[in-house]
Design brief:
Largest sheet: 4 strands, mixed
Order of helices and strands: HHHHHHHHEHHHEHEEEEEHE
Oligomer: single chain
CATH class of the largest domain: Mainly Alpha
Number of helices: 13
Length: 400
């Protein structure tokens, strides 16, 4: 499979953190025809996910606001959050970015799961063939929604499987995560004027989200999410869950009309398995202010739609509340010890705030260790000390 569209996930957050350039690369991943993980790392371009950190958080917050009480009880149970809307939204925000900052490093074979390579000349009937073996975003949405419904989790456990599902529903609504023009979903098309984004895919992953936040005058995913939710509230009922293949086709159509046609990018013969990376224009595409304004509007609509649809999917998944005596299900395997929030849990209000550093495998809480200095891309949230230590982390030495 050629690279689909794995945009630079971190750029949205990195923009607020002085644009941490090492993490802003984007690309569809190359075909993983060799199972050896070391070779997979070498063969796959560094990539991240649609909408950047802020975009994924926006989707999660809108979804949290629209969960039924039954679905909310399951989400709180799985993510180790208090059963109130604010705590659930915070937990879903943190979960929404785990596939980029944690799971991608654990297993590079997850990279193709974030996109589907639908050629611009494809028809709707061609979509299933673009997801061989279910190894793409549509297949993984179907897989993880089924796992959660049946409580049959894979090695990432219930919390990991839910994090994947939250993230992938965001991914599939980014138009360039469902399109390919022999350009890896816009990753091979350079842009001008010279912006922080290096290519067209990154523009749609992060620049349009920043522009959207600026137009709303918020700069914060929480504020942006709530304003988008109010703006598109009349469409909420229409934006119930539909098959993932239909959503991918819808996103592909948006890519055709609002990206490729709008920018006069020619349609190339497309062979997703060829792993070709070319710029069909032969030169950098010029993005003027009027185009960026329209792109911001499209992105806002897609983020709201993703949030409403994610809530609808989770509401369909859990129609009965979690049993009060159920053990928390956030551990990585069904047989693992239950992840219990103990009396030692550190919290601010209803928000669990244990944070680990995925590189050093050290965790801390407010007022101790490196909690305030931990780089955002290294942060992993845990519900308790026990959960952190079960995952192989140790407390910072200067924590009480």
């Amino acid at each position: 499979m050629t690279a689909g569209t794995m945009g630079a996930t971190i750029e949205g957050w990195a923009y607020l953190m002085n644009l941490m350039e090492p993490f802003s690369q984007s690309s569809h991943s190359a075909p993983l025809c060799i199972a050896n993980l070391v070779l997979a790392v070498l063969l796959c371009p560094v990539s991240a996910s649609a909408w950047g950190v802020d975009g994924h958080k926006i989707v999660a917050i809108i979804a949290a606001d629209n969960l039924t009480p039954a679905a909310a009880s399951h989400v709180a149970d799985i993510l180790g959050a208090s059963a109130n809307k604010r705590a659930i939204a915070t937990a879903m925000e943190a979960a929404s970015i785990r596939p980029d900052f944690e799971f991608r490093d654990e297993d590079p074979l997850t990279k193709p799961w974030h996109f589907i390579d639908i050629c611009l000349q494809d028809r709707r009937a061609d979509v299933p063939a673009r997801c061989p073996g279910g190894n793409c975003v549509t297949g993984k949405i179907d897989e993880y929604s089924k796992r959660l419904k049946e409580a049959k989790y894979d090695r990432w456990g219930a919390a990991g499987d839910l994090a994947f599902l939250i993230h992938f529903v965001g991914d599939i609504h980014q138009p360039l995560h469902a399109a390919n023009d022999e350009d890896r979903g816009g990753n091979c098309i350079t842009v001008k004027p010279n912006t922080r984004a290096k290519d067209l895919h990154e523009i749609w992953d992060t620049t349009v989200v920043r522009g959207l936040e600026d137009s709303i005058d918020s700069g914060r995913p929480q504020t942006t999410a709530h304003k988008l939710e109010r703006k598109y509230a009349p469409e909420k009922e229409a934006d119930s869950w539909i098959p993932a293949g239909d959503i991918a086709w819808e996103s592909n159509q948006l890519a055709r009309s609002d990206i490729y046609a709008a920018l006069h990018i020619p349609i190339e013969p497309c062979q997703p398995t060829a792993n070709v990376c070319r710029n069909p224009l032969g030169h950098a595409v010029e993005l003027d202010s009027s185009y960026m304004y329209r792109a911001d509007a499209v992105a806002g609509h897609q983020l709201a739609k993703a949030g409403f649809r994610l809530a609808s999917l989770l509401n369909e998944t859990w129609t009965q509340p979690a049993a009060p005596n159920d053990a928390p299900r956030g551990s990585k395997a069904n047989s693992a010890p239950a992840q219990v929030v103990s009396s030692k849990t550190v919290a601010v209000g209803d928000q669990i705030v244990f944070v680990g550093n995925r590189r050093s495998k050290i965790y801390a809480w407010p007022g101790c260790g490196s909690y305030d200095r931990m780089a955002p891309e290294n942060r992993v949230v845990f519900a308790s000390r026990e959960a952190a230590e079960q995952a192989g982390y140790r407390a910072a030495r200067n924590c009480p």
